[in-house]
Amino acid sequence: MPLSEEELRLLEQMERALVAEDPKFASTLRGTTMRQAARRRAILAGLGFAIGIAVLMGGAISGWWQIGIVGFVIMLVSATVALSALRGQRPGAQPAAAESSHPSGFGVIQGGKASRRSHHHRPSRGSGSFMQRVEERWRRRREGGGF
After folding, report:
1. For residue 79, is it within any domain?
2. Which domain does 70 fall in, by range?
């Protein structure tokens, strides 16, 4: 259930009072940001990927294919974690609360589908079909002197 305007106003006043009274405690409450946590996960996933390569190569050199499979699984899991962490780091993927955060560093988290932006709508460049647009691009590339 979302907070009412009065409750939001009171909460913001309490946050400002906390920051004014004890800024060190307020900065401790803020903790690490989502971006820092995502960066940390990506770095750890990169290290895990390197370990997976080492395990895979160790399995290949020793002749134990089971160790090689374990190394590959480690690499796969690490790559998945790294990609999900990096996807969360993109500027377009930041939540709406980061845009409307309070100067004190505290922000209001807006929930629901209303705050999500649609990335699937792209204006059409022409009235032609897909194949006509592809052929037009190909023609422009050839006339431009190569790829």
Report:
1. yes
2. 5-110
Contact 55, 71 (CB under 8 A): yes
Single pTM value for the model: 0.43
If phi over 0 gives left and psi between -120 and 50 gives alpha, with beta otherwise, what is residue 111? beta
The number of C-alpha atoms within 13 Å of 32 and in the hemisphere containing its C-beta is: 8
Number of domains observed in the structure of the chain? 1
Convert the pLDDT of each residue in 73-121 to its tens digit.
999 999 999 998 888 665 444 444 444 455 555 555 555 555 445 444 4
Backbone angles phi, psi at 107, to 5 degrees: -135, 165
Calculate Rg over the CA atoms of the chain. Answer: 25
Helix orientation angle between 34-62 and 65-89, rounded to the nearest 10 degrees? 160
> Residue 78: how many CB atoms within 10 A of its CB?
21
